[in-house]
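Journal club prep, notes for RB
We'll compare a predicted complex against what the paper describes. Inputs for the adenosine-5'-triphosphate case:
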Amino acid sequence: MPLNTYDNQQAGEAPFISLKDMQMEYQSGSKTLRVLENIDLDVNTGDFICVLGPSGCGKTSLLRIIAGYENATSGEVKIDGKKHKGPNADIGVVFQQANLFPWLSVEKNIEFGLKMKKLPKSERKRIIDHYINMVGLTEFSSLLPHELSGGMKQRAAIARSLATEPKVILMDEPFAALDSITRQSIQEQLRELWKQTNKTIFFITHDVDEAIFLANRIITINGSPGTVTLDIENPLANKIEEASDYRDLKGYNELRHLLINTLKNREAPLSQNLIKAKIAAAE
Ligand SMILES: Nc1ncnc2c1ncn2[C@@H]1O[C@H](COP(=O)(O)OP(=O)(O)OP(=O)(O)O)[C@@H](O)[C@H]1O
């Protein structure tokens, strides 16, 4: 039985994304593969949710449903209170590979979505300059994607996604291909950017530490078919300053063990209060 311990009422407004008793099945020839079941999930404006789960549990399927690329087999999927009908400008997506247009410079890549929105040139320039500066690529704006490092490409992809001002950004293991130093630096930048913009971010990762550093709310998905097994506020969210220092924080080991044990199905999910008490007891 899935347990959602996160208190959705605390945000005080209707969730921007709402999934109720959602199921997802794929057809392969005569076979039906059920990949997600009993998914109840509300994403509130300003949440930075990290989704953890073993390979194949349905994380990307869930993201693709929220993005509007796939239709759930049953259940309810609402975006901003309305039935989800397909991809829309309120939802931006960043994948593991940056997927920049290889023939366009960084600024032209960012401009692409703004042209689609039919914004005038002066407005496009203002927005491009703002987001290129935010991700620290001002000096590199005229370079083509193949002239950028992996981290720079991902920052350009994030800027491109932010520039169209989606209300939610969905990120599917966006830093998985980066080396650890670049990854740490880009994690810090994303966290800072979230604080500055108060964007809603839904971020898939395999990395427990990445989730603890980035999220204000952590969700685990387990099993086959996958279902939500834990949905908690990150008790360390406001205590972390830099990506390098949080492993020394009191309560970190307890939280990490709780998440890993839940992912391995070794520990029954705990209530939010019990989790807080457990972390507090370690301090
Ligand atoms: N379009 C599809 N058609 C048929 N089966 C699919 C399709 N997409 C995904 N699947 C299957 O659904 C299951 C869940 O896949 P999904 O990519 O959602 O998992 P995941 O948790 O994101 O995995 P990973 O962490 O390895 O990326 C897998 O068994 C996969 O083979």
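Talking point for the session: The first helix runs from residue 59 to 67.
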